[in-house]
Amino acid sequence: MLRKPLVLLCAAALMSVGVAHAQPALSSVIDAPLGLLNPEERRLLSPQLDVGPVLLVDLNPAELPAIVLAARVHASPAQVAQVLTHPEGYPRFMPALDRVHVESRRGAQLAYEWSWRLAVFTLRGRNVMTTLPGSARRGYRIDVRATGGDLGVGRMTWRIHPDPAGSFVIFSSRLDMRDANWVSGRLERGGRSVNRTINIALATVMLMGTQREAERLAGYERPAAASHASPMAVADIDLDALTPLLARGDLAFFHMRGELLDDVTVAGRMLTTVDPVRRVMEDPVAFSRSLVNGAHAEILEESAEGSLFSWGISLPLVGVTGRMRLSRDDGAVLIEGVSGALAHGRWRFDTHRFPSGEACVYGVGRFDPRETSALVRTLIGDDAYFAHGLTAAMQIMVVRSIRIRALRRVAEQRAASQ
Question: What structural domains does the chain harbor?
Answer without folding.
Answer: 55-218 (3.30.530.20), 243-417 (3.30.530.20)
